[in-house]
Amino acid sequence: MAMEAVVSTSLSGIMSSLVKLVVNEWCVEKTMKDELTNLYDELMNMDAFLEDVSSVPPDQLESQVKLRAREVRELSHAIGTHLHSFMARIESTKGALLPSVSKVNIQQEMDRYVKEIMKKVEKVSKRYGPYPCKSALESTSSLEVSTRMFATDTRESNHVGLEGAIAELTKKLSKSDHVSIVGMGGMGKTTLARAVYDKMKGDFDCGAFVTIGQRADMKRVLMYIFHGLHMEIYGHEPDQHQLTNQLQSFLVDKRCLIVIDDIWDKETWNFVELVFKGCAGIKIITTTRNRNIVKGVGVTVYTMKPLSPADSKELLRTKAQVKSHDAEFDTLSDQVLCKCGGVPIAITMIGVLLAEHQSKEWHGVYDSIGFDEHKEDGAFQHIRKVLSYSYYALPYNIKRCFLYLSLFPEDHWIEKNMLIWRWVAEGLVPEGSFEIGETYFEELMDRCMIQWAVSPHDPSQGGCRVHILMLRVIRDLSSSENFSTVLGLGMKQESISRTIPIHRLAIHEGEAMVGRSQNSRLLEVREVLSLYASTCPGSSLPPLREFENLRVMDLERCDLSLRDSNLEQLGRLKVLKYVGLVGIHMAELPRRIGRLKLLEILDVTATGIRELPPFVEELRKLRCLRAGKGTRMMGRVGMLTCLEELWLHSADKSPDFAAELQKLCEMRVLVIHLDEVDEGMQKKLVVSLHKLRKLQVLQVWSDAEEKARLGGRDWEGSVPSSQLRQLLLLGIILPRPMPWIHHSRVPKLSKLVLQVETLEVQHVQILGQMPSLRSLCLHIHCYGNRLLYTAGKHEFMVLAYLYVTNIELICGEGALPRIQELEVGGIRVGTDVGLRGNMPLLERVSYHLDCWGCSPVEVINAEEELKQASQAHPNSPVLTIKRWDGVDVCSIPFQGAAQLSEEATKSTINPLLSGAYGQIPQAGYLDCRDRAGVVLNMKDKSLPTAFQLVSATSVQPM
């Protein structure tokens, strides 16, 4: 049976807002107030019922409960849509001098609709009786989770692809008393923990391997540990406290290895910590799907990664018992592995099935597995079941946001900020708060249900991807509960029932060809709340005027233009809150967008629109406005007082932009580019920024570097918001780091990019004390002006990414304990980089070697020293070396010094050399990245190439 999940819009929340709005705006009769209150109570009961049911897997629910849940869910969708429509109409009348007859008409219409809703709600209640309490629902389920299939197999054949992980985890455990393995369900956490346990248990006096699972009984867990340690239990039926005391007494003088597998919640984690507190000789391995459990508790974390293609194929070959080269296997394996995405449990299960059949039957076995999310049988359902447990453990509100991911194609990169704005626009986030939506995104990350990823086109842009297997689970859950409808990729509209309303519609790559056929409408889209179309021709979309209740419209890289009548219909969508036109080529913004008085998000990035017309300033509810390169705003930005996020190119061309900016008191994210900047304009800009007390992200870049240098001192005196998390100033040359960059002024600062004329030791020491700084790019702008700095043991304690130029950085013992990626620009030939055994988490290191005045032999010898230093590091980090001659990246043949000609040996590298050694044109992007999802994509000719060329690898924050 296909999996089901219960999802609904929060009706009680909408109803509460509606009651307040009506009562406050109009003097309604007491009867009307009483009816609204009664309806509110009923909707609260519906919400509570759906929330309770959503936490229990459907196969553990009684049939009547599932039927009722399905009916209540559809009713809640319909009610929520109409209540939202009423809200929009009433909001549009606020402040307007409407004739009394208009208000009376709206009140009468509402009165009729409230009575109609109550009849439907009462009808459902009479059919099924009172709503069951949560305990009654739970009593129908065993809640016993069995996800350990294949994990108890300790044979070496089960460790394919895990050899490196076993070695790394063993090393981590030798240095730490507690290591936690974190990863998505089915990734092999238990298998890895078992392998390390079996490898190391001989070095200990005793050991135990205990699997907990969901809804753990703590006393039972203790009994399992006693059994694993071969302990005798004293006393008659001792309680949990007595068992804990006995265990601690037993372990007081012993070296013990304990594995606690499959922890789901913080309470269980705290219990484990308490039980083993004070046991000096104990080593603990824990496994969990939830990273949030191990945050901030001083535990070493090992994150599971998908198997590589080569390891995936080898594991499949081993499990399928293919002894030698088999053409049939090689052909089928590519099909199988692309569906498994490196998840061991999926590969293992399929391999075992193949082993039970002859090779000529393999394709039939593959077809029967059930990769299709609409297929209700097949062995692959077990994998879906394993992954779906993470969904049922989610908080109720986050479940709806998680299912929203069903709209996106496979392996699609999803930008963080715009995903959250979609959730907000559709009403999936309480109070429409972006900050709450951000916590939802972080929760899904921490639970390993989405994967942090940078944009394939711009490594500075943060977002996520959904694993291919997890996406199938989401699609299955979403489809069975009618949360969304996805067309394309082989799924035709004929497979969609016309009797079931569509709530969210996704059209991928125009394959579905949704629209009109033989003058009939094939799909009913009146109830659609969100429309997502990717790479579709205009002919594949239904007429926009039919989407009467549409709140989110995201047309990504679709083939539309202003001549397309569809875009001219935008003005009819009165409740539309989100308009995304990214990648749609058009000359100007459709004028009728100005009629969308409830519009909150407008994204016209990469459209080719040259101007945002003055009517944009009339969109007074706009909270997020994004316009890319070549697009200028012609209206007054200060009129958009609700703006929280603004991306604007050529901001200085907007009327009196620097002064208007100070009116935007709600601003959190500001990303602006300045074509021209004089000292006066920069002074006004800094004054305005000082007044934005909610500002969290500030990115300013300018092409007018020399003019920007004149106003560099203006930044020193104005202290920004204490909420500031990111500060990136590019093309603005500062005399020195601002004195307010201090842990007492901006304690939340996590990312910093600065260009300065001078940098002193005390400046770096102050930065080293910043408690939240995770990404730092520092560039001394003057070539030849260098700083020698030794990083101390207690500095930069959380820094994960560091890029410095013209700074000779020496890493002392214990320095940079959490650094993952280090890039050093302008490093002089012969510099001691001080890698050795420092920086225990280092994964990647890059040097931009300053070759000025050096012979090719000196350069090659210096590179060899850097390679040896990298190889000598315990982590053997990935090494990248770029050569820089002071002006450009220079290219020297990579050959041994003995093979160089005498002339080349005597030559020196300088910017005048060309031809013999060649030069690589100046190019690249400055990469400033983290999970805030804020983009900075610029090709800055004002920066030395060494500062521009940054690897496209992302550092994932903790």
List keywords for this structure.
958 residues; alpha/beta; Rossmann fold; 5-stranded parallel β-sheet; 33 strands; globular
Brief synopsis:
Residues 12-94 form the Disease resistance N-terminal domain. Residues 528-879 form the Disease resistance R13L4/SHOC-2-like LRR domain. The chain is 34% helix and 16% strand.
Secondary structure tally: strands: 33
CATH topology grouping of one domain:
Rossmann fold
Mean pLDDT: 79
Fraction in beta strands:
15-25%
Main sheet: strands, sense, barrel: 17 strands, parallel
Structural class: alpha/beta
Which CATH class of one domain applies here?
Answer: Alpha Beta
**CATH homologous superfamily caption of one domain:** P-loop containing nucleotide triphosphate hydrolases
Distance between the terminal alpha carbons, to the nearest Å? 38 Å
User: Which parts are unreliable, with pLDDT below 50 for 5 consecutive residues or more?
Assistant: 1-9, 139-152, 511-521, 891-958
The CATH architecture of one domain is 3-Layer(aba) Sandwich
Assembly state of the chains shown: single chain
Radius of gyration: 31 Å
Q: What's the tally of helices?
A: 28
